[in-house]
Amino acid sequence: MAAEGAAVVLGARGVAAGERLAAEIRAEGGTAVFVPTDVTVATDMERLTGTAMGRFGRLDAAFNNAGGVSAAGAVHELTPGQWEADLGLNLTSVFHGLRHQVPAIAASGGGAILNNASNLGVVGMATVAPYVAAKHGVVGLTRAVALEGAERGVRVNAVLSGAIDTPGFRTSMGATPEGEAHVAGLHPLGRIGTAEEIAAFCAFLLSDESSFVTGAALSIDGGYTTR
């Protein structure tokens, strides 16, 4: 989005990484502000949107991209706390964002919101039931809010991403060629995606070029969900 000329407001718990990314964007001639944010905290998400409105006077697009698995195991092995942690990070955080993003974008004349549901928003996977349930919930929430936002000029979509080559992915795979090869083999295209590929896809969905797209859950997963 910054490369396309957008002024961006970044929010994350990782302060050092967030500040570094904002500095990189500014060093390349872009405009970026970092706000320390815990997406599971309602007031943090309110402050994030408020910062965008306060600094730039408008909000045209928002991407709710946080997610992760707090614990893995069969459902009978998981605790209520682990269930609540995964729903908080992966689903309730999106609710917190939408509560403030929809009215802010509507007041700015309309725009778009994108929620990351991952490919597990439409298929199942053993040992990560809370994550799967949360991501399915993101798809449902996206569709409901798309109907609410339509008359206000606010489009809302979900992206269903497959495995993407990021530092987090490599950590989860143990940084082994065997682990990466196994995950790549789950995708009919025979590889994992790149950060550049998903960034371009998301930028399109947040731009006016996708102005007739709302309430959709769109895959960028190398064919994973077609199996």
From TrEMBL:
SUPFAM superfamilies: NAD(P)-binding Rossmann-fold domains. Keywords: Oxidoreductase. InterPro entries: NAD(P)-bd_dom_sf (IPR036291), Sc_DH/Rdtase_CS (IPR020904), SDR_fam (IPR002347). This is Glucose 1-dehydrogenase. Its EC number is 1.1.1.47. Belongs to the short-chain dehydrogenases/reductases (SDR) family. It comes from Nocardia farcinica. CDD domains: SDR_c.
